[in-house]
Amino acid sequence: MIVFFDELLGFLGLFHPLLVHLPIGILLLAFVMAIRTRFKGGDMYLPAIKLSLFLGTIAAIVAALSGYLLSRNGGYEEDVLSYHKWLGIAVAISGLWLWFLYRKESSGAFRFWLFFILVLLIGVTGHYGGTLTHGKGYFVEAMPVALKKLFKAEEDKEEVFIVQNAQEAEAYKGIIQPILKQRCQSCHGQRKQEGGLALDTKENLLKGGENGTVLNANDSKKSELYARLVLPEGHKKRMPPKGRTPITADQIKLIAWWIDQGANFDKKVHEIPQTEEIAHLLKKLETGEKEESAVLYADLPAAPSLPKDKVDAWQAKGIKIIQVARDNNFVLVNAINYPQFNDKDLQELLAIKDNIVQLKLGNTAVTDLAFSTLSAMPILSRLHLENTKISDAGLSQLKGLSKLTYLNLTGTKVTSKGLSKLNELPSLKNLYLYKTLNQEVAAIKQLNAKIKADTGNYSLPFIETDTIRF
Amino acid sequence: MKDLNKLIKEAQQFELQAVTRRHFLKDCVAGIGGIALGSLLTSCNGWGQSKSAEKLDLNALNPLVPKPPHFPGKAKSVIYLHMAGAPSQLELFDYKPALQKLHNQPCPESLLAGKKFAFIRGVPKMLGPQATFKQYGASGAWVSDHLPHFSKVVDEVSFLKAVHTDQFNHGPAQLFMHTGSARLGRPSIGSWVTYGLGSENSNLPGFVVLTSGGKTPDAGKSVWGSGFLPSVYQGVQCRSKGDPVLYIADPEGMGRDMKRDLIDAINNVNKTEYDTFRDPETLSRIAQYEMAYKMQVAVPEVMDINNEPAYIHELYGTEPGKESFANNCLLARKLVEQGVRFVQLFDWGWDSHGTNPADSIDLGFKNKCREIDRPMTALIMDLKQRGLLEETLVVWGGEFGRTPMQENRDNSDMPFLGRDHHTDAYTIWMAGGGVRNGISYGQTDDIGFAGVEGRSSVHDVHATMLHLLGFDHEKFTYDFQGRPFRLTDVEGELIQAII
């Protein structure tokens, strides 16, 4: 019988997301009426306000109770849950208080401002409720890109863990556990155990989740801990799920290696056999060298949808607007069939500046005037300007492009003067300078070490065997 | 004759019976409902069919319009260098000192038990590597002295040392390598890729084929065919001599304007045809006329290597006007630079059985190595200096490997050194397009007979290539004869080590 009640209460808890909307609606309606009463005068609405407050408060209490029942089912992040809970209770209490004030017909500013606070409380409570369901940061994540920038500070805090001496570290404690902590434990940890699975301790790892063990020593392919990570993109069982920071390819390989070599919890790294590749990956952990994420552009904010009429107009001209993948709105713009592409055309592209990740403007008519436009393209990652009229004058304006990793300046008039400006590009990795006026080594030396500059001009000297025929 | 008349009569009768008054009324009800619904829907949002009837929107109809893959691909184009005839991995990349020690000794029975070879009969002798090997680059890749130039770029390359196939004859093996099936009828990988991604340059075909070595591959044009995909996705074979594409020049007296009018007229007729029957092949035809018109200008330009500077010719070892692998490598670079999606090269003449000097391991094979060494190295360097290698996947390989045994055709001694076809192990390398640098994946046993670690099947290679282009090979399908088809059929695993 007790079990039955326990289950029933848990079941009733499921109605919380439905019930919460009642107090929100009713109390907001009451507030609208209160505003009218305050600014237009009269007491026409007073009975309605009183009734709404009464019903809204009752609804708030019911919602809070059901919320409590739901929280018993577990699986929520505790600090957020407690904010949500106390705020919810505050809503119910202030609703009750207001109802008393209106019933006593105590007029004046106080009850109106209390009402205002109540509405604020409802908003904040709702936000925390959303956080509980959708995960932290969901709100900012879904914002239009322009708004998102205001909240920029919260982003990009991805911690990189550095291992002092990877070979001497304990394989589990030093390498594997930090990866699990970074990638998995926000859902499978102490606070929250999705699917009944926690990955925070050896015991929990061995225990597995609702569907049994996740670790099958010596066989990564039969271990859910690994197998889920390599499911195809978009598979609903793939981990980490869509919307979460993806795990890197290197980390996946390290997990597979650890499992295949016996999933040992005590051994040190050097005691476990390693292939060359694994040894290399371990070495990378020591420098904290950031690898490319397994999926291109996964670290960029979601792009808004494309304006169809504009895109059609560009396409008709011969400017190719090509979506880079089906599940996002990032585009590659290629002007290969529109060589007369000029600075003005580029300005028009600003309409989709939050979509453009790659711009292929080689052999077009763009000039140095293009750079001020280019610098306003926040997620531009690959820029082709080969064989154009650009020169040093423009390069300094590129520094705002924080995502730019690839820059092709082949066959342009850039010199060492302009190149030094490129050091201000934080992500730039590959720079192509073939057939530029400047190929002197000194100019390349002044570049950051992380920029790989390719000046080309390769040759294959003639060797005797080239012409020997048998 | 009498029987035939009876049959026809029967058929007419059947047809009449099929549409009874009741049927007619029933059809009308559904039909009228449909019409009403249609007008309801279109009147609501205003974008009904009214527009489409007006002007032929070639952009929307064009089957080669660029399309997004499943996820962002690191490779945007592919250059596939196929050495038709299958080069010996044992003289190029798979260094087997133990095989040298066994040279001229009879092959142990255990290796031959249950195996079938194309030409080897009885007990052949082992044949030691006919080359000297050294390790090169930071990655320490083994390369033989047959490829002195290539050894300089090994750090850009990743090797698959234990690829295996299940076909030991050229035709089926080439088909398998390019279409994922040893039987005819499947689309080639170039067609799949062009079908999936379209073409970035609307003036050039998306899939171009270039051949050298005097012959086309044994499997014929099916290795670049489109199988059951619309034929617009098949490879366009360009010639290295004369007009790159046959009849590309206008006949005398035919101006560009007149040509344009002609093609517009034909396309309009075809458009009407398409609106009636909805046959995708009609779209292919429209696209091909349109493309042919544009190609008349664009192709001769891109296929002309005369304008390349002298140092580029020196780098590749090209001689304009000749049919050669070198010319094709340079063309491949030019085509990719112009946004062509898939460039397929075939170089014929690698079938080193040892029946005559030209196909012997110690003579003709070395000449073939000379012919490809400089150009393929130049191709990698040239792509790299132009910033193209990052997004261009270069694949090199044959259709199978060669035996560690010397061929003894029909159990007789051969006049020259040669190796038979071998399915259990061969080497393929890939560069650029998101492939890791300097990896050597997979290992064969001490004599290079079979893979012992990190084996990759042909399907694995395809799955990996598609992955680099942004496709999940399990979801990349085309419906044909009632079921979705894949390039990798029901197999294929990503070769994680090189991506």
TrEMBL record, chain A:
It holds the Pfam family DUF2231. The chain crosses the membrane at residues 20-39, 51-71, 83-102, 109-129. Keywords: Membrane, Transmembrane, Transmembrane helix. InterPro entries: Cyt_c-like_dom_sf (IPR036909), Cyt_c_Planctomycete-type (IPR011429), DUF2231_TM (IPR019251), LRR_dom_sf (IPR032675). Residues 184-243 form the Cytochrome C Planctomycete-type domain. It comes from the Bacteria. One of its GO terms (molecular function) is electron transfer activity. This is Putative membrane protein.
TrEMBL record, chain B:
It comes from the Bacteria. The lineage of its organism: Bacteria, Pseudomonadati, Bacteroidota, Sphingobacteriia, Sphingobacteriales. This is Uncharacterized protein DUF1501. Pfam families: DUF1501 (PF07394). SUPFAM superfamilies: Alkaline phosphatase-like. It comes from Sphingobacterium siyangense. InterPro entries: Alkaline_phosphatase_core_sf (IPR017850), DUF1501 (IPR010869).
